[in-house]
């Protein structure tokens, strides 16, 4: 069926705003930005712990391979973001800071003015393009006290274009199933700010074996990232966070990691664990399927019709109303075509939506923007 | 559509035959079988490295919780297996040794007569129930030389009821992408023995966080197991094993772990990695989708319609011809009903097949047994 067309919305699109780049440039440890002189015309962005050895080598041996990735204008330029949106006919973007967010700040730094600076930088960018840009704020999760985080939620809520928060899987340092994080989730639920959950740490390199160097970043990015997200959200589920904070809404990156595919096995494992099953019954816990359809939204960044159909089916009878298109810009630029033109990575995900939901259908239209517009209230208040 | 009914075949069903139990009972280190005296009427089966601390505690403190799981007759009794098959209307079972197989043997033990003893034990059991039992053999992967493994493949092929081999993800100790394992895969392809790939190690416990003790075995079993399988098979894919050994056939446990859901992301990550893409083009490597439909079969042990549909769709246009029902017996016994009756875990997977492919359809019939019968040639030769 066809219907009046919704705006196209990209809910998974990152930036490192100028203030954030300054922080990274001043750092000696990963994450950092560094210029390797004549070896490279762009400064390099080095984010992952796995890049420590190559960074150390490059600092000692000028001829060694340059670590990280080029910090192109795609990471920090608002003009570039708007150009990318126009090229791909994206009407609205919900910007978020990319990983590792502010998770590396010392407690003192996180408790100072810096986090607000970043969020204000996003608000400023949104105001330059009314109706086209909104953002997910970043919380100072390593702060000296929970109160600092709660205050940051209040401040973020006060910013006109803030529509949620982005969060990694570390929480206060012990993961998202940490009981000390429940007050933060409660405050987010109260403020009606959904959490966009995004991976950063992946899995320990040991699981990728001695030949991993031959495979580039494929194993950590294609497998480690979605597996990290899945583990984080299942830990939340098993700890009872969703039942303790029924108002909490989570948007899971990469269509939930692997949660849609594994939900049945998770449910079966709970049903076959005596102690856990007893606790679930006593506390009247809901099934993972109920949580998926009542508190979880999935983005559409899964690069296949197969994955997208599973994501929709896992989200309940009206699963197509819970899916939100995203691009993951500025990551995964095209290798063989002009970066200023259309990106293959965007095309793969848009094509998956068309194939899974039907070209020109109302459902595809909702996934491409209607759902995000409705759920995140993407209009000027 | 309806059709003449195929036999119901269970391709994912384990046993620890008597010879194997003797080995485990004689061991001091995990894996082992141990009786904790008055504390427990059954001896306990302790398999996982994660159980080391609880084993050590139980050996020192008599009142400590008993580690592992009861070694019930379901693990070692052929009569119990036949009863289970009859109860669930399973016509044929393709038995396999359960993890950790023979992966813990010293090189000397693996190179001696012991591995053949285990395979002969399976052959003996199959001969007791003609037409109802076949098996996947176990290879002495830790042997002193590759030749010992190759000889074992020849011997296994000579056993009348052997229809493939079961394998974990360790290979010769460095994973399944180890170049030294290619001759083994070539010999298996030559012998037309498919590899049933099954997890054992899971992921390092560090990923489950400080509260993991509250979640029983759910995280390692529901997430670690399928993630381990996925990582292993993707490492094989990236190393080019499938292209190097086009005759190799793999049957992936738990519907491929998470491979059907992540295949699109894997493909996209390869397309966006310059060095890897160049190598793939030079070597004319196939896509992960091609490998899935040409060299991979998936079992149906995924406990949900959502997962099963994704498994079928990921296996190509005729994906329903590549799916094979399994039970994972004797694991996941029912907690609240008689173990001699119907098992909920079996019902969940059979129901998923009916829902995904249509009650009474030809496709459901093939998934429940027709495919396994055809692919594994489950008839007396």
TrEMBL record, chains A, B:
It comes from the Eukaryota. Residues 112-376 form the Amidohydrolase-related domain. This is Amidohydrolase-related domain-containing protein. The keyword Transmembrane does not apply. Keywords: Decarboxylase, Lyase. It comes from Podospora fimiseda. The keyword Lyase applies. GO terms for cellular component: cytosol. One of its GO terms (biological process) is secondary metabolic process. Belongs to the metallo-dependent hydrolases superfamily. One of its GO terms (molecular function) is carboxy-lyase activity.
């Amino acid at each position: 069926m066809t219907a009046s067309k919704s705006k196209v919305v990209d809910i998974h699109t990152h930036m490192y705003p100028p203030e954030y780049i300054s922080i990274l440039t001043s750092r000696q440890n990963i994450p950092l930005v560094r210029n390797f002189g004549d070896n490279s015309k762009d400064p390099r962005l080095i984010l992952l712990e796995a890049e420590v050895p190559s960074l150390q080598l490059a600092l000692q041996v000028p001829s060694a391979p340059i670590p990280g990735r080029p910090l192109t204008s795609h990471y920090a330029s608002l003009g570039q973001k708007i150009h990318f949106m126009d090229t791909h006919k994206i009407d609205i973007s919900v910007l978020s800071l990319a990983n590792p967010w502010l998770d590396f700040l010392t407690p003192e730094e996180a408790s100072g003015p810096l986090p607000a600076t970043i969020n204000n930088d996003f608000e400023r960018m949104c105001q330059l393009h009314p109706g086209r840009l909104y953002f997910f704020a970043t919380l100072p999760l390593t702060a000296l006290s929970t109160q600092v985080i709660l205050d940051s939620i209040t401040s973020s809520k006060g910013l006109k274009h803030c529509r949620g928060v982005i969060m990694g899987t570390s929480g206060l340092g012990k993961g998202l199933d940490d009981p000390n994080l429940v007050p933060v989730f409660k405050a987010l639920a109260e403020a009606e700010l959904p959490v966009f959950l995004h991976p950063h740490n992946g899995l320990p390199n040991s699981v990728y074996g001695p030949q991993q160097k031959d495979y580039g970043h494929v194993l950590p990015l294609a497998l480690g990232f979605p597996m990290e997200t899945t583990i984080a959200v299942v830990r939340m589920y098993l700890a009872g966070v969703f039942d303790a904070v029924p108002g909490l809404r989570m948007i899971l990156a990469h269509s939930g990691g692997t949660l849609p595919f594994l939900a049945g096995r998770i449910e079966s494992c709970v049903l076959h664990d005596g102690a856990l099953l007893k606790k679930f019954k006593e506390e009247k816990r809901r099934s993972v399927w109920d949580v998926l359809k009542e508190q979880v939204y999935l983005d559409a960044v899964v690069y296949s019709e197969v994955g997208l159909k599973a994501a929709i089916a896992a989200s309940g009878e009206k699963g197509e109303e819970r899916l939100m298109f995203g691009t993951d810009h500025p990551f995964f630029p095209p290798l063989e075509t002009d970066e200023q033109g259309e990106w293959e990575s965007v095309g793969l995900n848009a094509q998956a939506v068309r194939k899974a939901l039907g070209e020109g259908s109302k459902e595809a239209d909702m996934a491409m923007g209607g759902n995000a517009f409705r759920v995140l209230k993407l209009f000027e208040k």
